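Hi W., the NAP complex you wanted:
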Amino acid sequence: MRAIVYRHGRSEPSLEEIRDPVVREGEVVVLLQAAALNHRDVWIMQGKYPGIQEGIIMGSDGAGLYNGSSLLINPNQNWGTDSNHQSSGYQILGMPANGTFAERIVLPEDRLVPTPGHLSAEEAAALPLGGLTAYRVLFRRCELTSTDKVCISGIGGGVALLAFQFALALGAEVWVTSSDPQKIAEAKKMGAAGGFRYTEQDWSKSMKKASGGFDVIVDSAGGKGFSNLVSMCKPGARIGIYGGTRGTIQNLSPQQIFWKQISILGSTMGSDSDFDEMVDFVDSHKIHPKIDSIYTLEEVADAFSRMEKGEQFGKIVLKIGAES
Ligand SMILES: NC(=O)c1ccc[n+]([C@@H]2O[C@H](COP(=O)([O-])OP(=O)(O)OC[C@H]3O[C@@H](n4cnc5c(N)ncnc54)[C@H](OP(=O)(O)O)[C@@H]3O)[C@@H](O)[C@H]2O)c1
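Structure:
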């Protein structure tokens, strides 16, 4: 079968013809129709992810066919029994275990969830990892309600856009930030109350003034700009962090955090029951994950390059073989 395999020392992911996977007891073969990129895949190619192994099929997100049914794949492996955090044996599909950037994948049957009927295979593939992360950080960690005013930072990101769509579906007032005015304009068309460029001088002061401040802020950047997010918090606000794209948080005033009774909440992926609830939420609100672009397996290097440059607005999808 054709697959995108990680090879040490190669700067670009490459398409290879490899042997079909072997099915062990309790496992099934899914014919993949589509897969999607996550920033994790870029970190792996750049050698910035723990536990990288040679010869592994990349990819955490996928949707396909098993027994004639359309299914999406839960990328969690061994979350464990505590809903508050993952177990020490937790892993994410696509490193170190073989992932979804291939024509076939072998998985335990309990990793498969029926695809909501309103989703295409490409939309289904765009959902799992980003949807799970967005759902947990918003609802489990930040306990978002429909009366909250929310800021989603870096709206072009795959997780950010899903969080944006989920918060809108709940009925919350949602504001966004981005480096790109075009992306802010797109978000406004989708229902954002407003947006500001985080690359501009004093943007957070203008955003706080325009919005009146936020009850919930969701961020994956961290870095120098994080203290701006704290300054935009209303008293009692919650900030959910699920990534650290811009590195170590700096210049954070403890006074600002304790005086305003702010909660800063870390969030990673989500439990299997979070995953099921997320898929139900998407189904009941008929949410279509925003797809930025669709590439073939042959074009995978272009797909990675688009994500590395941060050009995307939503999920970058790989279209694979199987037709429904
Ligand atoms: N903890 C977890 O379970 C988990 C799960 C998924 C992802 N993550 C992490 O979360 C991050 C995003 O992942 P992704 O797959 O959504 O990536 P992605 O699609 O590549 O999105 C990255 C986005 O980050 C935004 N960004 C960059 N610098 C920023 C800054 N200084 N302030 C605000 N936003 C900034 C950009 O938004 P604009 O283009 O709008 O400027 C960019 O589009 C990555 O670091 C990833 O490793 C963690």
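The two ends are 18 Å apart (CA to CA).

W.
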